[in-house]
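User: I'm curious whether this sequence folds into something compact or stays loose and floppy. Could you predict its structure so I can see for myself?
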Amino acid sequence: MKREDIKQEAQNMCDKRFSYLHNSAFFDGFVTAAEWRINSVWHNADEVPKEKGYILVEVNGSQPIFVTWNINVIPTNWDKIVKENNVVKWAYVKDLIPIMED
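Assistant: Here's the prediction. I'll summarize afterward.
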């Protein structure tokens, strides 16, 4: 998702019945919250995964790529894994799935 997409959706959500000040505050809050949500799921490479399950890993080579790993046991040699695979950051796949609650 691009920042422009977030800003466009924030603009679409603004209620024109409020004054510009309220729309501005809503707009800024919407954009800030959306960016926080997107970025909050990512962990730095030096942080060891603490839960079993799938993680999405950004690997830095000539071009950044993303790979999915299944963590069956909490890795005790995470530093070695990070170094050998050029891990930049990672996220739990479950944190990337949309919220389906009512």
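Summary: Strands lie at 43-44, 53-59, 65-71, 87-92. Residues 45 and 83 are 9 Å apart (CA to CA).
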